[in-house]
Amino acid sequence: MKLLLKGFRNGLGGIIAFFSWIIPTGKVKRSREAQQQVDVQTQNIELYQFFGCPFCIKTRRAIRRLNLNIVTRDAQDRQGAYRAELLKETGKTQVPCLKITDGDTVEWMLETNQIIDYLDKRFA
Ligand SMILES: N[C@@H](CCC(=O)N[C@@H](CS)C(=O)NCC(=O)O)C(=O)O
């Protein structure tokens, strides 16, 4: 039963991810120089996420709309290093979670709306 529910959830997540992928978001346009500057800044940002999680899909759509090259980390794999890191640093395995590195300082940001607000304020 648990396995069936898991399969259903993953299947549904995959379908949502597929539609999200084919439905355009509109995209922020920047000059080549401005995009290069943004790309440098986003090298210090990582998105810990699950592929089929609706909150993660919403966050990935915002990232696409803002034309950001943010690396994604799979936190779904129970044996995976990224899930372990997320749990160690935030005390939870909740996704999406944005890891923002600024020199020696690392901020872990949870909550979809907070993440999107942050990205909008910084990059829109
Ligand atoms: N309030 C959160 C909800 C996020 C959420 O429920 N994420 C689920 C995946 S869809 C999750 O992290 N589940 C695993 C866990 O909580 O350990 C948000 O808006 O980001």
Summarize the structure.
With 124 residues, the protein is an alpha+beta fold. It is built from five helices and four strands, in the order ααβαβαββα. α1 (2-22) packs parallel to α3 (54-65).
Characterization of this structure:
With 124 residues, the protein is an alpha+beta fold. Helix content is 53%, strand content 17%. The chain contains five helices and four strands. Strands 2-1-3-4 form a four-stranded mixed sheet, sandwiched between helices. Helix 3 (54-65) links the parallel strand 1 and strand 2 (71-74). Helix 1 (2-22) packs parallel to helix 3 (54-65) and helix 3 runs parallel beside helix 5 (112-123). It is globular, with a radius of gyration of 15 Å. The mean pLDDT is 95. Bound molecules: glutathione (GSH). Glutathione binds at residues 50, 53, 55, 92-96, 111-112. Residues 50, 53, 55, 92-96, 111-112 line the site of glutathione.
What ligands are attached or bound here?
glutathione
Biggest sheet features: 4 strands, mixed
Poorly predicted regions are none
In helices, the fraction of residues equals: 40-55%
Helix/strand/pairing category: alpha+beta
| N-to-C series of helices and strands | HHEHEHEEH
Q: Would you tell me the overall average pLDDT?
A: 95
| Rg computed from alpha carbons, rounded to a whole number of angstroms | 15 Å
* Total count of helical runs of at least 4 residues: 5
Shape: globular
Distance between the termini: 44 Å
* Strand content bin: 15-25%
**How are the strands of the biggest sheet laid out side by side?**
2-1-3-4
- What's the β-strand tally? 4
